[in-house]
Amino acid sequence: MRYAYAITGALLLGGTAIAVTTSSNVGAQVAQNEGLQAAAPAGAPASLADMVEKLQPAVVNISTKQRVQVQNPFAGTPFGNLFGFGQGQPQTRQAQSLGSGFIISADGYIVTNNHVVSAGAEGATVEQITVTLTDREEYTAKLVGRDAATDIAVLKIEPKKAMPFVKFGDSTKARVGDWVVAIGNPFALSGTVTAGIISAVHRGTGGTYDKFIQTDASINQGNSGGPMFDMRGNVIGINSQILSPSGGNVGIGFAIPSEQAAPIVETLMKGQTVKRGYLGVQISPLGEDLAESLGLAKNSGEFIQGVEPGRGADKAGIKAGDVIVSVNGQEVNPDQNLSSIVANQPIGAKVPIVLIRNGQRMTVTAVVGERPPEDELNSFAQSQDDEDFSEQQQQAPGKAAEQSLGIAAIPLTPGIIRQLGIPTDTRGIVITAVDGSTDAGAKGLRRGDVIMSANNRPVTSQAELDAQVKAVAGQGRNAILLQVLRRGQPPIFLPVRMRDK
């Protein structure tokens, strides 16, 4: 600050000197910014002030008080009673969280992110949710409902008067390059307004139902749950996430689109839980290696790794190894993944599903079921707790190095099956060595893994595996699809690139 003042003083002194020594024509000069007014871009207002003035009262600050059980790190030591821990027992501490939200009805319904009103740590419980209006009036809010899968929550306050509110707009009409405005409480700075453009739509960040609007309007910690407005003042998104190596804004923020949020909010306001469609399949994206191994275009469809017995997909005849390319007329691609499309289908509906099996296109009809609780789903999902394919490395001497896949294998025998602890009816070949310099080695294939099929053909010997490798190479493909079984896990399909000769 001292340095800044010193510069200011020097500039003022310099200005004085110039005023003394310049000619009398100085009086004819005007300031560079005299009478200027920037022209607005086409379609944008000259100022956002009028719009923001109307919208801001409907945007609120949301804070929580939480109680956290803190374990004593010194329990069982001579220091067990230090730092407020009595007799080495866990202690209760208070914590707070801060976020944003917006009022959607005159009687006080409020939308925010689920993570804003959820416990922030293991062992924590939320004791109170406080909503603060722009005029600093505070209300204790009740949690009406939440949907963790999409990170949406609905609160209710009991206001003393009719509340200012905003309504959802139509995010399906949002285009990359459109102007947007975000209002929220970043870093506890209430009523902060930022503006920018839509940078992308249908952006996924790894979640099952991700379909975010990406924006360069500044979004920071504390903006979560606040609204994203279009230039007509309609809410087209709920600000939810940022992508930032530093923890601050770097021009990449994400908002849940209103087309996804509005129906969920309506359901939660009624006190109901969100129900989603379900087929009962385990899927993988059709990335480059997987697409190459199947001879298909990448990112057009999703690959079925497994089918849950008795569910809609199983009853419709869908099998592991199929590629689903459309559901009920909606194309499956990175912008519209299979889970998201199926989730939005009415439960009990009969939907046509177009799939590719062994290169042949076919259509089946499936009845959409109801998605079960997450803990039940986890029991069907592939377990990778302590044996991750990508983390295994092996040296593969001898015969493995001679093979185009870098894999040496022998036929399964009853004795080997018992030794491996796999189902007695398993058919295939067991890997005895893997060349670590190959794609098979890089992807974690190892001694003891069982190859059940290659190129969607059963294999019972190294010669049959080699024959399928040659068949794939003869079709101009550089990768082959293997179905691999590892003890304690369900079979999975794994694309493996062949070694250049």
From TrEMBL:
Keywords: Hydrolase, Periplasm, Protease, Repeat, Serine protease, Signal, Stress response. Its main location: periplasm. PROSITE patterns: PDZ (PS50106). It is an enzyme of class 3 (hydrolase). SMART domains: PDZ. Residues 1-19 form the signal peptide. It catalyses: Acts on substrates that are at least partially unfolded. The cleavage site P1 residue is normally between a pair of hydrophobic residues, such as Val-|-Val. Residues 268-359 form the PDZ domain. It is found in: Periplasm. Pfam families: PDZ_2, Trypsin_2. The keyword Transmembrane does not apply. Residues 370-402 are annotated as: Disordered. InterPro entries: PDZ (IPR001478), PDZ_sf (IPR036034), Pept_S1C_Do (IPR011782), Peptidase_S1_PA (IPR009003), Peptidase_S1C (IPR001940). Coiled coil: none annotated. Its EC number is 3.4.21.107. One of its GO terms (molecular function) is hydrolase activity. Belongs to the peptidase S1C family. This is Probable periplasmic serine endoprotease DegP-like.
